[in-house]
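STRUCTURE:
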């Protein structure tokens, strides 16, 4: 039985069957093979989630072979993309067609289907997460049928599954909203943490993207901003903090150090106070933590399970080295996040049960109702997801 592990190596499984389909027929074939009636099917993206969303002991499907851009409409600014395509493979073909992703996260190694599955996001007051960019999807259902959904076809399925957690079926294609290609100029500077928190509103409004990283023990933090520019790109690319190039070349970073991570979104007005509370707690209780806390912003959206559903937010992340104990740290942080109305990132560590998730997400029961309609026997629910079923 092959071993599957996530990026950090902290999450693993040995499924009875590990399939790498080349197309939808192969997927339907894999689903039709006899199994125990309670066998669970899960889908692996690039394995960059810190939450055990992917593991199953039964059938694991890896869609790496379903790769590439199918169609780009530069005029109407959308592209149809195969689900296994890595974000890093999108920049060049989109740019050559004069378009670009609306935003990206810190890295570009994820599969596009994995990024949309969990509400992966970058930073920017006016910028939404990947799930909110989805305009349509093609999904292989539990019985091998293929369904297409968007605002006109199977609208409820579309609304629910823009952030799908791999729980509706096997997504094979996505249509994403885009914008004209653009260049970004990046800046990196050190600033007193108190000054940043006192002026966070102005800082986050001043440029298209703003974030900061604070290292526990320090009185200062590293601020990073990115602003659109008409200036020509400069190659070779400078180091992080000094790049001027196309958006996909500047937004993605290298983050090779293995770590685990907790991230919560809190209402935008609560961001600085929540950060101050984390700083106090970490300084007192975890003075030896040597991994940064990150502060970003995210625009509101209407994606049912999004951490930004109906509210703009600040997203605060806490990291820990992969070999260090992290549960006491993350549990202490989570208590603070909850006090500030936090919603956990679906792809990162959290300890929420079904009740806590239901109270954080106004559309929780709707999401489950629609999910259960399209997968009535719970074929796509692994142990983690099954514990959340209302
Ligand atoms: C170094 C690092 C940096 C990160 N930076 C950011 C960041 O800047 N912003 C942010 O928001 N997050 C970030 N993350 C988290 C990461 O973006 C999410 O966890 C994302 O979901 C991972 O994508 P993946 O392709 O690896 O998916 P996986 O982790 O493999 O899977 C995620 C979910 O998608 C489902 N899935 C994948 N493909 C399909 C499919 N075709 N059909 C149905 N279901 C599918 C899986 O079953 C699972 O439920 C980071 C993670 C790491 C390790």
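SEQUENCE:
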């Amino acid at each position: 039985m092959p071993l599957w592990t996530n990026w950090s190596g902290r999450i693993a499984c040995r499924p009875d069957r590990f399939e790498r389909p080349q197309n939808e027929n192969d997927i339907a074939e894999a689903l039709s093979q006899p199994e125990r009636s309670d066998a669970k099917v899960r889908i692996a993206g690039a394995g960059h989630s810190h939450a055990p969303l992917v593991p199953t002991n039964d059938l694991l499907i890896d869609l790496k072979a379903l790769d590439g851009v199918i169609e780009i409409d530069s005029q109407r600014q959308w592209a149809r993309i195969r689900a296994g395509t890595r974000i890093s493979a999108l920049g060049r073909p989109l740019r050559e067609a004069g378009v670009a992703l609306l935003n990206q996260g810190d890295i570009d190694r994820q599969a596009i289907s994995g990024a949309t599955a969990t509400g992966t996001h970058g930073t920017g007051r006016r910028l939404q997460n990947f799930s909110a960019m989805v305009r349509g999807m093609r999904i292989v259902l539990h019985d091998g049928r293929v369904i297409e959904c968007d605002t006109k076809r199977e609208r409820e399925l579309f609304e629910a599954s823009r952030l799908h957690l791999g729980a509706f079926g096997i997504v094979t294609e996505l249509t994403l909203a885009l914008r004209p290609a653009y260049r970004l100029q990046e800046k990196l500077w050190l600033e007193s943490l108190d000054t940043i928190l006192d002026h966070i509103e102005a800082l986050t409004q001043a440029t298209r993207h703003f974030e900061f990283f604070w290292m526990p023990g320090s009185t200062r933090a590293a601020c990073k901003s990115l602003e659109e520019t008409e200036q020509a790109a400069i190659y070779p690319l400078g180091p992080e903090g000094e790049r001027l190039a196309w958006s996909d070349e500047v937004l993605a970073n290298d983050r090779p150090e293995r770590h685990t991570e907790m991230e919560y979104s809190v209402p935008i007005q609560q961001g600085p106070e929540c950060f101050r509370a984390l700083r106090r707690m970490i300084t007192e209780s975890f003075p030896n933590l040597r991994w940064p806390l990150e502060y970003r912003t995210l625009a509101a959206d209407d994606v049912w399970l999004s951490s930004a559903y109906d509210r703009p937010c600040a997203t605060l992340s806490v990291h820990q080295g992969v070999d260090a104990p992290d549960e006491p740290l993350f549990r202490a942080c989570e208590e603070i996040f909850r006090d500030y109305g936090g919603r956990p990132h679906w792809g990162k560590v959290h300890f929420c049960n079904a009740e806590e998730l239901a109270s954080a997400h106004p559309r929780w029961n709707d999401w489950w109702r629609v999910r259960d309609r399209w997968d009535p026997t719970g074929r796509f629910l692994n142990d983690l997801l099954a514990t959340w079923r209302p």
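REMARK: The chain is about 25% helix and 25% strand.
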